[in-house]
Amino acid sequence: MASRKRDEFSKLVKATLRDRVGSVCSQPACGKATVGPDVSSEDRAAVIGVAAHICAAASGGPRYDAKQTPIERASILNAIWLCANCAALIDKNAGRGYSVRQLNKWKNDAEAQAHDALLSSAAYRRPPWLERLSTVHYANVPRLAQMLSVEGIPDSVIETLQNGFPTSGMIVQELVALEKAIEAANVEALPLDDILPPSEDIVGSVISFHHNCMTKNGVIDREEVSPKWISDFNQERSPHFYIKIRGTRLNFPYDPRWVTTTTAYSDFRAGRTRFAGLGVVKRISDDLTEAIVSPLLVGLPRHPAWDGFL
Asked: Which helix (H) or strand (E) holds 182?
């Protein structure tokens, strides 16, 4: 039986595709470098990336599109640059769970990030964990709606939560609506790793983070906290979490009114946990070793490995 003809990419397509994303994997939760030196030689490079087909190269393959011509199938428009692991992942189980639309979004976002990196070492971009946000632990709803143009938050939710999350009653519908709106919103921020060491230039900027955090002075469910402890940060009294990275401590004092659930309160007392979120840089110490960041959103993204089970 004759083998099915595959419409493969040319060397030029592969090289151009790789260069357009800065040689990193286009999977937003990966971003792995795919080109580096070949340690066995002084004049060669090692490439561990793959020009993967968005729609399969031959009939019967993942996401195969019979309407494509051979030229379209082998064009750069049908290609996405991935590390070898992610390239294998998207083709498992006949490609189920990884649609053409999703892969094109990965590709477009990766190219946009690479373009922004040419203009600035710290470029605003959409946090990759937003698409995997499964639990919101903290959300200052009015500020989110105002600062980040989260237009999808229903007016009824904003009205219900304008003064914080209620101390009694069920808020399941409001919380689900809020999480969906945030996930779909056009949110961009400076990644924390790109702004270190910090400078006065980033004061007032929205930053994103997905790091191990230490919690301190976590309050009991619905406990009253003096507003002064939030507005005038006190390391020994203010409820906060912090991130220590590259010689800088970033403190995130939070207002308990915007903590969503009793489970969230427990995590804010956990001692050590991993949060993802958004915050506004309020001030930086003169020696650049400490910063105060006002949190807008804190949550727990699901692990990428869970995606195949959803």
From this structure: helix 172-184
Residue 278 pairs in a beta bridge with 208, 297
Residue identified by tokens 């070949």 is: 38
Element (H, E) at 53: strand 49-53
Both structure tokens of 267: 């995590």
Q: Is the pLDDT of residue 104 over 90?
A: yes
- Domain spans of the chain? 11-119, 124-310
Write out pLDDT tens, residues 173-183: 888 888 888 87
Which one is the CATH code of 124-310: 1.10.530.10, 3.40.50.300, 3.90.230.10, 2.40.50.140?
2.40.50.140
The end-to-end CA distance of the chain, in Å, is 38
pTM: 0.59
What's the token pair of residue 78?
A: 């049908």
**Whose CA is closest to 11, among 87, 74, 80, 98?**
74
- Report how far residue 127's alpha carbon sits from residue 208's, in angstroms, rounded to the nearest whole number: 7
Q: Which residues is 300 bridged to in the sheet?
A: 135
57: Cα separation from own chain's centroid:
31
Per DSSP, helices labelled H in the chain are 11-20, 70-73, 84-91, 100-119, 141-147, 155-160, 172-184, 227-231, 262-267
